[in-house]
Amino acid sequence: MNIQKKETYSFQSEVKQLLHLMIHSLYSNKEIFLRELISNASDAIDKLRFESISSPNLYNNNKPKIQISINKSQRTLIINDNGIGMTRKDIIENLGTIAKSGTKSFLKSLEDKKNNIKNELIGEFGVGFYSSFIVSEKVLVRTKFAGNQSNEGILWESSGEGEYNITNVIKKTQGTEITLFLKKEEDEFLETWKIKNIVNKYSDHITVPVEIQIYDEKNKTYFWEQINKAQALWIRNKSSISDKEYQEFYKYLTNDQNNPITWSHNHVEGTHEYISLLYIPEKAAWDIWNRDNKHGLKLYVKRVYIMDNSQEFLPNYLRFIRGIIDSSNLPLNVSREILQNNSITQNLKKALVKRSLKMLDKLSNNDNEKYQSFWNQFGLVLKEGPAEDSENLNLIANLLRFTSMKNNSSEQKISLKQYISDMCDKQEKIYYITADSYMSAKNSPHLELFNKKGIDVLLLSDRIDEWMMNYLVEFEGKKFQSISKEDLSLNKLVEEKITNKEETSKEIVDFLIKVKKILGDKVKSVRLTNRLTETPCIVLSDSNEMSTQMAKLFTAAGQPVPELKYIFEINPKHELIKKICTMSNDEIFEEWIKLLLDQALFAEKGNLDNPHEFIARMNKLFIQL
């Protein structure tokens, strides 16, 4: 080996933390390191296949393969591939840094829970290569990028302790060779039977042949033995694939340590021929809300790998779905730009969205416990659906889950079908209320009438709920109605109406005139109500105006909000109202009315424009008692 220039580099600080965690804390299932290295080698071969579409000379007519050899005397395990290889720049970027935002916060979260995370880190962050150091005291990587000259080979060397060396070397063949110098306590990985078992367990389904070097005692020679099926799992007949194989393929594809909740495997023939294999994970990715979150399907065209994380085939609200699509209609040299403007892509997307939603619908009907587990993890993401996908609105609505007044729990378990089946005879609409929290919604004075009538109300307290309800207009012929907005159906629920006598009695007429004069344009109108039982007054939004929660969303987003003017409703049967009606001191009367409005606004909005004035007014009235 002709060694030339040697340079020493320091690992990025995040890599140092990661290596320390991996070597000392995280992995209980050490054998997964081999799965990771084989997966990386398979990806390198897939990338070479793709690049060779436009540059056929890169392929060199070599049969794609991954080879594993053991040297017991030197205590080394070698994994070699003839894939695309790496340049010096690739080596530094791929093996010396983690170029992804959110790294520090991710590592901090690992430190906080490292005793529980065990194997969950592998693949979670694209750091599979570093798992080599769990079993190795030193790692060598010899690589040459496809198309480069033999004198452009690179040797990378590290003990995983903060630094790595890079040297220019001669390497005649393209691809990457990784040599692991195993620790003394890792003898099991020097056994051929152990390596075979690991490959059969984790890598049987990858499309590249994995070979192991075997020594023939009789003939005193070495030969290569293929130890995996090397057939794409998704092209096999569904009846020949076991649940275990589907689960292992999912783990290989996603680097997730948990089994998927469910999956859907489909071969479609006709105008657009394709195969899809879609999975629903058990747990949400730690960075699912991060803008840099990588999601989408792995794309193949006629069994040839094209790209990872192709987001063109599923909408953003289904970003938790993982899997592959293998199309027979797309061109092999397809790019992301072509995908975005391709009619075939749009047709495939429509079909895959339907398939995904039906997969979830089947899960919700067949296994309520598993669906509830899915909803607890991904419900907030799915709630983006009504705004993004009007075409499938009914399918999405059927999958939504809510909590309600009668449910008496913050866990969202109730479907809209269940709510409708439990509706009262005279109930015309699906009633709901939005609030900042579950407890705020549960204790809203707007619920008093519904408690009295035994009518259930959906309690919506996720930030996205108000936005979602703007697009969720009706379900199975029943319209949605916010109980904090004025509506005719709400008035119909009040059997005991305010009598004309009460409305026209001199005392109440004078009272309403005085209240309107005091509040002026602070409110839209003032009127009596029998909707309340425990509360003296509330405020309602006009049916055509922005709701309180929507105004909060606008404010949080830095958007201008029009001035909100509420309808002020007063309960004439409340003892406090009766007492205020009899007050002769106009100044005290005015203070009480302003206090009542502030109370109602505080209950509705959760805040006041001038809380100090409210407190001062309340203290002033306390003194008068």
TrEMBL record:
Q: Where is this region: C?
A: 553-625
Q: Where would you say this protein principally sits, based on its record?
A: cytoplasm
Q: Name one GO cellular component term.
A: cytoplasm
B: annotated span? 337-552
PROSITE patterns assigned to the protein according to its UniProt record, in alphabetical order: HSP90
In what residue span(s) does the Histidine kinase/HSP90-like ATPase domain sit? 29-186
UniProt KW Acetylation keyword:
no
Compartments it resides in: Cytoplasm
One Pfam family of this chain? HATPase_c_3
Residues noted as binding ATP in the record, renumbered to the chain: E36, N40, D81, M86, N94, K100, S101, G102, T176, R336
Query: What keywords are assigned to this protein?
Result: ATP-binding, Chaperone, Cytoplasm, Nucleotide-binding, Stress response
Q: Name one GO molecular function term.
A: unfolded protein binding
Keyword Cytoplasm in the entry? The reply is yes
Q: Where is region (A) located?
A: 1-336
- Top-level division of the source organism's lineage: Bacteria
Subunit description: Homodimer.
Q: What is this protein for, i.e. what is its function? A: Molecular chaperone. Has ATPase activity.
Of which family is this protein a member? Belongs to the heat shock protein 90 family.
The name this protein goes by in its record: Chaperone protein HtpG
- Give the organism the record lists: Buchnera aphidicola
The organism that produces this protein has a lineage beginning with: Bacteria, Pseudomonadati, Pseudomonadota, Gammaproteobacteria, Enterobacterales
